[in-house]
Specification:
By secondary structure, this protein is an alpha/beta fold. It is built from eleven helices and five strands. The strands form two sheets. A three-stranded mixed β-sheet has the order 1-4-3, with helices on one face. Strands 2-5 form a two-stranded parallel ribbon. The N terminus is likely disordered.
Length: 201
């Protein structure tokens, strides 16, 4: 399996041209009776509140707490994640990459918005923006600064390019003084952005 990475600001607009088109199409399909807005709302709610980043947070917390699971996750993320029941569309081929003091990982999809829905839920608007997709590769340190993340100059940044074949999960660094926390409490600390690499835990 080939890895896609680049060693080396993003757009917060809420209504892009694509958003306008999607809303217009949804309105038209609803008016014609082809789609049920309640069903769409339920699907969105499921991904935001039940799937959301909660699945990924459980994966991260288990990796932090169980060295054997962490080793398995880094060796075969697809199988390790599937063992927790998190499988399905856009999560079939996963790779986990670990943040360390020497290396910080970020994920982007430079071509479109490939994203592991079953693990992280719905992709954030900024992840799909052209600005993030281009700047994350060209100036990752500046993009991280836009998110409020400042890393030492000695920390290398690696940008992984998600594709239709491979999607990535960043394993954030475990915070200090959390040895006595349960996996459930650890999972509450993990955010979606930390698993994309645009935030720290």
């Amino acid at each position: 399996m080939a890895s896609h990475f680049h060693d080396h600001d993003h757009d917060h607009s809420t209504l892009s041209e694509m958003d306008v088109r999607v809303r217009a199409l949804e309105t038209l399909l609803t008016q014609k009776g082809y789609i049920d807005t309640a069903a769409i709302d339920r699907i969105i709610e499921t991904y935001e509140t039940e799937v959301g980043p909660h699945n990924g947070a459980q994966v991260v917390a288990k990796a932090w707490a169980e060295p054997d699971f962490k080793a398995w996750l880094l060796e075969d993320a697809t199988a390790a994640i599937a063992s927790l029941g998190f499988t399905g569309r856009q999560g079939e081929h996963m790779v986990a990459v670990e943040n360390t003091p020497e290396l910080h990982n970020m994920v982007v999809c430079t071509l479109c918005s490939c994203y592991p829905w079953t693990v992280l839920g719905l992709p954030p608007v900024w992840y799909k923006s052209a600005a993030y997709r281009s700047r994350a590769v060209l100036e990752p340190r500046k993009v991280l600064a836009d998110f409020g993340v400042t890393l030492p100059q000695s920390t290398r940044i690696r940008v992984w390019d998600s594709t239709a074949e491979v999607r990535y999960l960043v394993l954030p660094r475990r915070p200090a003084d959390t040895e006595n926390l349960s996996q459930a409490d650890l999972a509450k600390m993990v955010t979606r952005d930390a698993m994309i690499g645009t935030a720290l835990v």
